[in-house]
Every structure is written in C-alpha cells, then in structure tokens.
Design brief:
The chain is about 40% helix and about 15% strand. With about 220 residues, the chain is an alpha/beta fold. It has a 6-stranded parallel sheet, with helices on both faces. The protein is globular, with a radius of gyration of 18 Å. The mean pLDDT is about 95. The chain binds farnesyl diphosphate (FPP). The site of farnesyl diphosphate has 21 residues, from helix 1, helix 3, strand 2 and helix 4.
C-alpha cells in the first residue's frame, strides 16, 4: 500500500564524537551539526509530502552535562533562530520550540499556513511531554484517555512521525517521542550527525517507501 512521508523525526547524535575524532572541542561538533540541520530543512521544504520535521536538539537528561556545553547549545539555538527566522518565514517554514522552556527567552515567529513545521525539541523528554499533557488535561477537568492525550500530542507536534532517524550508531530512543513513535518506521544510521548528507536522506526516503506498514493489522499477503 502506498504510504506517504508526512512527518520525519530525527535524533541528531554523534556531534561530540565527530569533534573528538578530530581533536576538536565538542562545541565544534555541535557547530558543524548546524549544516545538516539546514540541509534537512531545505530538503523537507522541497519534498512533496513532508509537512513536519521534528528534531531532538537537547534532552532534559542532557542538562546533566557540564553547564558550559548546555549553555553553548542554548546560545547556538538562539543565534540560529535570530539569524535565520526571517528567511525561514519567507520560505513558509514555521519553527516552534517544544520542551520545558518556561523562563527562557527564545525567539519564535508564528507563520500561518506553513509549507513545513519544524519542531525543535529543546529541554525535552518523551516522559516529560506525556506528563505535561496529562496535567493540562487534568487542569481542564478532562478525562485522560488515549484519544484525549493523542489530540493534544497532535496539536503540539503534528501527526505521529512516519519515520524516525537516529544517527551516531546507537540503537535506542533516549526518551524521545515515546508516545508518538508507536508505529513509526525506525532507521538507525552509523553516520555521525555532522556527516549526515543528502544521500543519507535520500536512502532513508527510498527505503521507507519500500516498507510495509500494517499498524498491527494484517497485510494483503498475510493469508
Ligand atoms: C548529540 O550529539 C547532539 C546534541 C546533544 C545536540 C544537537 C544539536 C545540534 C545538532 C546543533 C544545534 C541544533 C540547532 C537546531 C540549533 P552528542 O553530543 O550526544 O554526541 P556524542 O554522542 O558523540 O557525544
């Protein structure tokens, strides 16, 4: 059955190792990691089906790293938003931040009728997001059911990702979109994030289209 790629999620792993392999400080790996982010946004905008791109920028667990690294990533994020938001708006790309960011001044700019929504998950974890939604439902006196939680997830992030890519040769989800990845197609790539290229993107898209998605039901060939 033909299935489209509407939502792509990415765990961008391997910046630190990329830098260490070159005897550079880890911050250089994070800086270099901006290039594939820009490439991916460009490719997603050009793609006929992709409407949502969700990127794991920094987890709540990453906050246990040295303060210097945490501050560096936050400053990098703010600088990127300040320098690129205007151009992204012209391209009809709406960038929004998802995470525990109360009290942090992050520049955002609402874009109506976007071609692409980019969710930057910053100070984010899957368990935090589920409990945040449950608390919002309770505060509104609404029942917590799979459907009510799902509709808030869709409002926050868009429909469940069709594909999740993790780079960096690690095969785990690291508390990313725990609710949303129930039926996503998983791709674990041995490439370090700063080396993620257009050809990696193309290979994933081609391979995804060949997969059979059954969502727990039986496929036509299953007898
Ligand atoms: C994982 O590599 C990467 C991060 C924790 C940060 C991701 C940030 C970027 C790609 C750049 C910033 C992005 C934006 C949109 C501003 P790691 O440090 O865990 O690598 P390692 O596993 O090799 O140590």
């Amino acid at each position: 059955m033909l299935h489209k790629l509407l939502h792509l999620a990415v765990i961008m792993d391997g910046n630190g190792r990329w830098a260490t392999e070159r005897n550079l400080p880890r911050s250089e790996g994070h800086l270099k990691g901006i290039d594939p982010v820009k490439m991916l946004i460009r490719r997603a905008v050009q793609h006929p089906d992709i409407q949502f791109l969700t990127l794991f920028v920094y987890s709540l667990e990453n906050l246990k790293r040295p303060l210097q690294e945490t501050q560096y990533i936050q400053d990098l994020l703010i600088n990127c938003l300040q320098s690129d938001l205007e151009e992204l708006e012209q391209e009809r790309v709406f960038v929004r931040i998802i995470g525990d960011v109360a009290g942090i001044d992050l520049p955002v700019r609402y874009v109506s009728n976007p071609k692409l929504v980019v969710n930057l998950c910053f100070r984010y974890s899957g368990r935090w997001h589920i409990s945040n939604i449950v608390n919002r439902l309770l505060a509104q006196n609404q029942p917590c059911t799979p459907d009510s939680i799902q509709s808030m997830m869709v409002a926050d992030l868009g429909p469940d990702p069709d594909v999740i890519i993790r780079t960096g040769n690690e095969m785990r989800l690291s508390n990313f979109l725990l609710w949303n990845l129930a039926y996503s197609e998983l791709f674990f790539l041995p490439v370090l994030w700063p080396d993620f290229s257009e050809s990696h993107f193309d290979q994933v898209v081609t391979s995804y289209l060949k997969r059979h998605r059954r969502y727990g039901t039986l496929g036509v060939d299953d007898g």
